[in-house]
Amino acid sequence: MFGIFVRRFASALPIILIVSLMTFSLMHFIPGDPAAAMAGLSATPDMIIQLRHDLGLDEPFLTQLFTWYSGLLHGNLGRSILMGKPVMEVMLFRLPVTVALSAYALVITLVIGLVAGVFAALRHNSWVDQAAMVFSMLGISLPNFWLGLLMIIIFGVWLGWLPTGGYVAFSDDPVGWLRTSTMPAVSLALLQVGLLARITRSTMLEVLRQDYIRTARAKGLKWRVVVVKHALVNALIPITTVVGIIVSLSVSGSVVTESLFSIPGVGQLLTQGVLNRDYPLVQGGLLIVTTLLVFVNVLVDVSYALLDPRVRHENR
Amino acid sequence: MKTAETRRHPAWETLGRLLRHRMFAMGLCLFGIIVVAGVLAPVITSVDPTKLAMRFKFRPPSADFVFGTDNFGRSLWSRVIWGAQLSMMIGASVVLLNAVFGTLIGAVAGYFPRLDNVLMRLNDALMAFPAILLAIGITSVLGPSTVNVILALSIVYIPRTARIVRASVIVLREMEYVQAAVAAGAGHWRILRRHIMPNAMGPLIVQLSFLFAYAVLSEATLSFLGLGAVPPTPTWGNIMAEGRQYMTDSFWIITIPGVALMVTVLGLNLLGDGLRDVLDPRLRIQQ
Amino acid sequence: MSLLEVRNLTTAFQTGRGEINAIEDVSFSVEPGEILGIVGESGSGKSVTALTIMGLLPRPPARVAQGSVWFDGQELTGLAETRMERIRGKGISMVFQEPMTSLNPVLSIGEQVMETVRAHERVGPAEQRRRAIEMLDRVGIPSAAKRMGDFPHQLSGGQRQRVMLAIGLACRPRLLIADEPTTALDVTIQAQVLDLMMDLRDELGMAIIIITHNMGVIAETADRVLVMYAGRIVEQAPVQTVFDAPAHPYTRGLLGCVPTLEQDTRRLLAIPGSLPEPGLRPEGCRFAPRCELAIEACRAGLPPLESLAAGHDVACIRA
Questions:
Q1: Which of A120, A182, B109, C76 could form a disulfide with C69 if both were Cys (CB 3.0 to 4.6 A apart)?
Q2: pLDDT, tens digit, 9 for 90 and up, residues C61-73
Q3: With contacts defined as CB-CB under 8 Å, which chain A residues touch C119?
Q4: Which residue of B has its CA nearest to A266?
Q5: What strand order describes the sheet that includes C74-75?
Q6: Candidates 3.20.20.70, 1.10.8.640, 3.40.1160.10, 1.10.3720.10; correct CATH number of A87-275?
């Protein structure tokens, strides 16, 4: 088992290497003078020269590349112009907020998506199936920021049930966290719920047709046992691959959702960085988030092997 | 011989099957409404979407202003319809660029195993970035504009399209009739063009219809964040971003472009599901 | 009283072209300890008969349109699913023809045998394990205790079929239905599995219904034979009678191309033509279009199953 983990992890390293190279090159695609662009319109020529020096942009390309990678090795991603602090520090400070929000959305997705998908498959072609599929279709078609706006109007303003924005850390006040995170998490989860329900349904329909399901029934097992132990466990194998995509979508969505609900997470920070042309912040944020997602996918791959004995033995 | 003459061309056959597919027909209608609205924008709107008229501001939908007005008294009807035109243009451009470059990269990677490794490593790396985040990063570097949004979304989605084309090509490459063409000494490009690509079209078309939906949705997200076309050019995203401040009283400003966006994406998703049911042979076998 | 009694059973399927009878008016019985062979081409309704007895057909599209199934004095048709669950695996077990796909790929073979015991008997984990090892050992899995944790993909086809048998026999059922149990296996393994089934019949005193298209398998195992064609029973007789004096032209056709255990012919080349599809079945005797002896009267009406001698029934007006 440990061997699989190491192997999958190692195969992710080249990807991270290319990702970091791409993020590094990003700044070199800024048309004109990046330092001038970052410093803003009101900057004096001296300020621009100073900034260019601070960012190392006056160095030759290869030196910049070397500085970037030696920085990475020490966990140094440069300084944010906007915050005046190391990018790594501000990111790590904001990360727990985004992770908590994404985790909440993921839990909602898994519970509703799996349940809806399984029931739709078990009641194939019934009204339950049709309703679940109509809602899933709407889920994948509604823009999540628009849904967020509507929820703010309805539940925040008109009904006054939940605050329209802001954030309370879970460690400070769990109830406050639930109150501030529920609307963002729901609006964030909607797309993924739709996706997961559709995939769960089609996979379950496929699995329920298999011969081993008939065998399980012929043994006299209770229908509940057949569905959960025999059908669902087998269906989870292909479903697991989707979890990586779902997490990636959650993180993507959190950029807008966090700005919408004024949640001080990585997404909101990145938006501020982009709007203020704080390129080191954007660069660093992009790299950290993407690296984390690559690791999430490694974990997904490993759990795939955990679920499927065929994969497990193939890798032995 | 006679039956061959009376039988319709296979393309018509497929079209007939598509139109009988309920979801496809519904999707086509929804998407059609938006496309027609976008194309006919100069005809069906009489007011300049950027024209300010402060005395008419915050008018709810009425006989005079079908969709109401915004905080500057601009007609939302005009703005949403012109926004539709821009959305369709951006969506179509991204789809076109994907069709060209995604196909090219996917076909080359799938057909020439030696190039496959390099191309797919780059592909994997680009796909490792969360889609919207990468698009945000690219537009922030290039600066907000319509062209840059098209460029950014193409860079984000081409690897995904290439992957799908590559998968089809790898399967088709091993087919006997392709092997026969290779043995007969046909050139690589001829084989790709004549024997492989026509059979890889199904999954590609399905992917492109979903891609259109993602592109429209992503464009709206980017312009909602202020990274799309620069105001006062109306886009669904920036109309909603501007309307956000006034949404408690003038909720129609955000509701109407949101509905337009939903209709587009829903239409395209239904269209894509229908196309997949009819065109993708791998899935057809399973059903 | 017989162990199993099937009376006038008709199973219908809902299709795009209306309701079609997969089997029609099927009646037979199985005595304790007896091996009944059901033979016919694929599509003749053998498997549908077995699955109807087990209550394993998906409903809809399938339904029992007529008749009844009685097991040990209890009517199975129309029995509540929870009651049926208690009979499956305990009273009647079934072994399927596809050993490659009939085992759950993510559960160990030990677990798959043990859960059958667990479903029917209140015994602790240690006893479940002991029983599973005993059964796996009995069906000829070498060093069974060590193989309990193996997964299906680690086993050969023959071994998987043995595991299927162990699952079927785990609770010592009174009737075992084996649907083409050896078709997917190669010849030497086929003979071993058949011998094993016969031994177990003697040892456990259970009855067996063996479903096959292979007359060689019938000759080797069965006490009594049921011949099915296009959803109906066409002949029923003790095995010796079937081989010595077959009455129905179809049975004779089957014997004309007797596939021995060594050479298995899936398609019966000696009989010209092919099985009519359900829904496209001819008027009158369904075999008439392929029958050398057919006369005008054969196409007029369905020939009833009539007794020719004691224990020998045939549905043919020319017999």
A1: C76
A2: 888 888 899 998 8
A3: 219-222, 225
A4: B133
A5: C18-30, C4-15, C62-71, C74-75
A6: 1.10.3720.10
